[in-house]
Amino acid sequence: MTDLEDLTARARAWLADDPDETSRAELSRVLDGLPGTADDLADRFAGPLTFGTAGLRGPLRAGPNGMNLAVVTQAAAGLVGWLAARGGTGPLVIGYDARHGSKEFAERTARVATGAGREAMLLPRPLPTPVLAYAVRKLGAAAGVMVTASHNPPQDNGYKVYLGESLGGELGAGAQIVPPADVEISAAIAAVGRLSTVPLGDLGVVLDDDIVESYVEAAATVVDPDGPRDLAVAYTPLHGVGATTLAAAFAHAGFARPHLVAEQAEPDPLFPTVAFPNPEEPGAIDRVIELATVTGADIAIANDPDADRCAVAIPGPQGWRMLRGDEVGVLLADHLQRRGVAGRYATTIVSSSLLSELCARRGVPYGATLTGFKWIVRAGADLAYGYEEALGYCVAPSLVRDKDGITAALLVAELAAGLKASLRTIGDRLDEIAAEFGVYATDQLSVRVDDLSEIDTAMAYIRTKTPGSLLDDAVISVEDLAPENDVLILRTESARVVVRPSGTEPKLKAYLEVVEPVVDGDVAAARERAAASVRALRTETAAALGIW
């Protein structure tokens, strides 16, 4: 049998078991187009989607290497079977965003759960991921599923899995899965037989708005009830599901309703006004900055489409600019510490090292973890706060043990309102932190690829031709976390480079940091020197990866 004949046989076997008429028609068209569609067919059957940094995620298309009803049915059956085998107690709680297929995938998950004899609870409508993470703990669930592709392009969808306390333990209650659970669930999914034999029940319990109101009330407690509230905010959910929940949380906390970017206010799975629905991408927050300028807002805030991330922009002498995730991360840590919030403050190995210095000088427990909130929230039972440079912040681990763009936005608003009441700004506070600790300038070199082998080539290149110096300073340490983790860390006395493949997108990422002391209180001059150094470091890193 030729390779194409084998591929065609596997595709026809999949087609015969696919429960979705639309997917069957799609795959039939690909089969009818052979041999011209052979590459397309091979890609669809290159392998099943696997659990990565954030569970399943991939393009909406027929076949095992895509997000579709067949893959979701198999994933749900494997997950429910694993929960039963491990003795997980409680219901399966399911949430979903407004992407194409999300509601259908959520409802199929619920029906698989009830068909297997486990209670299913479905959130009432498309809602932010943090609401699902909150509900897992609030409702004593065995696990939770969130159908979302977060900030990925419109053609994608995904499937995040959270564990309840019975299987996740104290640190993993309401958190995303980590090894060995991900490997075990993958094995359980692979062991599912024909989909036509998977029993389907009803939808279970469709929850009402009580769970959303409970989340909103809990979210509002992250701010001091007696603090200043005079603040004008411009906001966008980037065509996602955050607007209603964020507005309710702001109102419950006593803030004025944010000015809303009208053309991005309603959920739209096509994300028509942005190239990529990710606040980090160039141009993504242009419209909310325009709105902030027109309305005279004090700050601008953007959530990503599932509202677990939070972007912040502030006005300055050169106009509005979006703060880096590391800037917001340290600002919120500093704010919580000044409020007297005790406990461990954690971030990842790719985030700025400023948080470790902040904690060291103040005698506050610190934690550094691998990339991803599934690791950050497991930094310790005493966790008070965690953040990652990719705009993710966990400001209330007792409520949501994951990144939460709603509570982060509330805490940013509290900080900005307090500074405004004392005739200061977030920019002023950043300068004060720099004057005390030095300028920690960070940047990222991110390369999107069409062929994942390009990432392997670049990682091999820098490992075999590791530079001996960066910015004319000797590299004093090289830390290679392979084979457990594909991460390489280079350090000089005043700079650091961390290189790794993305866990959620076809990207190679290099995280850059330069530390520049402030001389004679001149923060502006130190920022200029640091910016120039980061630009040079970016060029040197690209060359070291062989991608210049």
TrEMBL record:
Q: Which Pfam families match?
A: PGM_PMM_I, PGM_PMM_II, PGM_PMM_III, PGM_PMM_IV
The organism's place on the tree of life at top rank: Bacteria
**Cofactor(s) this protein cannot do without:** Mg(2+)
Record's keyword terms, sorted = Isomerase, Magnesium, Metal-binding, Phosphoprotein
The chain positions of domain Alpha-D-phosphohexomutase C-terminal read: 475-520
Domain Alpha-D-phosphohexomutase alpha/beta/alpha intervals: 50-164, 214-313, 325-426
* Keyword match Glycosyltransferase: no
Family recorded in the similarity comment: Belongs to the phosphohexose mutase family.
Report what the protein is called: Phosphomannomutase
Organism of origin is Asanoa siamensis
